[in-house]
Amino acid sequence: MEVSPTLAQEIVTDMKGIINQDLNFIDTRGIVIASTNIERINTDHEGARKVLATKMDLIIERDEQFKGARKGINIPIYFENNIVGVIGITGEKEEVTKFGQIIKKMTEILVKDAWLKNLTIQRRENNRMIVDYLLFQPESEQSKTNINKLFEVDLNKPRIIIIGKFVKKVQSSHHLVDRLNSIFEKYVLFNQENFFTIKGDEIILILDHRFENDMERTLNHITKETKENLGIELSFGIGSSTIHTRSIKQSYQQAKSAINWANSTNNQRINYFKDLDIGLILNRVSTTSKQYYVDKVLSNLCPKELREYGQMIEVYGKNNGSINKTAEELFIHKNTLQYKLNKLAKLTEYNPRILNDYVILRIAFLLIKKDVGW
């Protein structure tokens, strides 16, 4: 690893704040690339070159004992058993030697942390590029070959496409995106054939098809952790398993349909495209047409009635029109249910006991479920 001047300057500045001594960071060429004394930056340091050659600490007892060096201590800095530079502490021997090993360990920790951070950034960028190629770029055999070689992945493997979205609108920030990335990386990137990225309001996952058996369990872990640690609820749409790269874009659109329908109806957190029924059609209806339909059917209901009758119609349909079972599930008397069904028919001019009218009412309530809530 090569320590950048920016990182080196951060290190010496932070260390001076702790020990109140001037410090220098010298690279593997023996050049000062960072210093708390700006005049020493980009100068040669023969003392550091000796440290690089001997791999041992060097105490310099007087200025210019080595060309470009001042009295103090110079210590080799290691990363994964390789010297990546030398840190020098300027001052009297008695003052600086007591700080030597502490500064060495702290510097090596900061270097490793920076390396891990850069590794994470690079991994996220690689994932972004792969997802972008698979979903948003024109397909070509040459591009596929380049991606395969560059990232050492097999893009021809069957995959599963998942889209995650926030259940409620969230104010995005760099910190939030970083935390989300960390959570998904923990559960998804154990397999180098899995990719994911956060693009706009979508969390896009492209997973090895062998992940399918553990998929729901993993997504439940993710939703639990994001809710507990970030206070955010997620829902997911899952497309069909793909056989080749040509069907990945289609699977992405399927996952998009599943998540959009789930979010518009306030449905369950994990949603499969293959399980969509009426949502396949309603998902494609324009917002204007939906609003016109809802106004036409439900305009005589107030917000409280919309919630009350929406829940009633949902439970009534789930119980196949059984008065007894519906009343039992709603915790009301069956006569009260009968009264409410009659009142809804009077208010809307659609009788829920008639199959055709029930379907009209059910669709209208589905279209407003998320906005009204029940």
Automatic annotation (TrEMBL):
Which superkingdom is the protein from? Bacteria
Q: A Pfam family for this UniProt protein?
A: Diacid_rec
* Occurrences of domain PucR C-terminal helix-turn-helix (ranges): 313-366
The Putative sugar diacid recognition domain extends over: 4-128
Name the InterPro entries for this protein: CdaR-like_regulators, CdaR_GGDEF, Diacid_rec, PucR_C-HTH_dom, PucR_C-HTH_sf
Domain spans labelled CdaR GGDEF-like = 150-259
Q: Which family is this protein grouped under? A: Belongs to the CdaR family.
Question: What is the name listed in the Swiss-Prot or TrEMBL entry for this protein?
Answer: Sugar diacid utilization regulator
Q: What is the organism of origin for this protein? A: Oceanobacillus halophilus
